Amino acid sequence: MDNNNETAHILVVDDEGAIRYSVSKTLQRVGYEVDEAATGEEALDMMTKREYDVVLTDIRMPGLTGVELLKRIKDLSPDAIVILMTGYASLGTAVESLRLGAHDYLIKPSSSQDIRQSVSRGVERSRNLKRRRALLDAIRSNVFELTHAPEDSTASAYHDDGEPLAASAYDSSIAEPMTSNMTLGPLTIYPGRYQISVGDQPIDLTPTEFDLLLYLAAHRGRVVSCHELVREVRGYTVDEAEAREVIRPHVSNLRRKLKQTGQDADLIVNVRGIGYRLSEQSQ
């Protein structure tokens, strides 16, 4: 199954009861918690009542088709992981499904191994997205505290007459927390694009580099061990020595990309024998 001990919740959608039963049993045998829906409409109703890591749906169904269900799910939850199944494969349908945001496309009858592997990848993707959202929430919360909770006294946030200072009176290097983009020192973070910028220079990052930077930003002010970075960013646990080998190449690539923007100082500081932290310039 996946590396996370928490049970993943899967929704299987198919109008044929025998197929629902077979797919559900295939997934239950490896520890997933599985619910079933006979129609797209029933699936949407169930999704309003609980959160699913992965939705596995047939394409050809009476009423709401699998592709139409995919569109509706993506409108409700853009990060939802949807796997489409079909016994009538066509390149056009596959391309359209992936363009609409399907995670995978399986041809029926699919082997138990193919189903499990596809769902396992979907669960991993789902949890990576949840970790990223948690990091963004932590950064927004951190920034909100910095902009709304003065360190020494209420005097720093208020005029002498007791009126609050205007927003422009706060540190201009820190963006408002509710905007889609976030500014931390010289960095601007674009959460939906795996992209940051330093000044006017955009930098494209891999998902791991992006999540690594987000985690360090969410925990700026302290040194984060490599073991913690692997666990929280990559989603599995290794010892510290192995963790250093896993994290080092990603940090190296991230530093290289940051330095290409002409920054004089490393924004990511290596604290030898302990881990990494963002430099004071990112505060």
Walk me through this protein's architecture:
The chain is of the alpha/beta class. The chain folds into 2 domains: 9-126, Rossmann fold (3-Layer(aba) Sandwich); 171-282, Arc Repressor Mutant, subunit A (Orthogonal Bundle), CATH 1.10.10. The chain has 8 helices and 12 strands. Strands 2-1-3-4-5 form a 5-stranded parallel beta sheet, sandwiched between helices. Strands 6-7-8-9 form a 4-stranded antiparallel beta sheet, with no helix packed on it. A 3-stranded antiparallel beta sheet has the order 10-12-11. A hairpin with a 2-residue loop joins strand 6 (182-184) and strand 7. Helix 2 runs parallel beside helix 3 (66-76) and helix 5 runs parallel beside helix 6 (207-218).
